[in-house]
Design a protein that fits this description.
Layout lengths: L1 H11 L11 H18 L4 H17 L7 H15 L6 H12 L1
Length: 103
């Protein structure tokens, strides 16, 4: 959750008096970019990456963005997609790659 809060603070930092929250579409775009980057580093097939993106969007279609850490949900979607598409990846590798992509 801390990474998500830092991301919001970074996106809302502005020199003007009007500080606005970033739109949810901007946050989703950045998180899907993170998801794609992690998938490339894990050498996942494109079908697995697409499945992870679909799981991510389906999750947030029914839930509020403010209640969940989107990077954690994205990492979970990668794990779920590797299981659904039967592409074995160790959980340790997913955690390490996602941690390095976020920082």
């Amino acid at each position: 959750m801390e990474v998500f809060k830092k991301e919001i603070q970074r996106l809302t930092a502005s020199s003007g008096a009007n500080i606005q929250k970033p739109s949810s579409s901007k946050i989703h775009f950045k998180v899907v970019h993170f998801l794609m980057e992690a998938s490339v580093k894990l050498s996942l097939e494109s079908v697995t990456t697409a499945s992870a993106c679909i799981f991510y969007h389906r999750f947030f279609r029914q839930r509020k963005l403010s209640n969940y850490d989107p990077h954690l949900i994205a990492a979970t979607c990668i794990y779920l997609a590797t299981k659904v598409e039967e592409q074995p990846v160790r959980m340790r590798d997913i955690i390490n790659v996602c941690h390095r992509c976020v920082i």
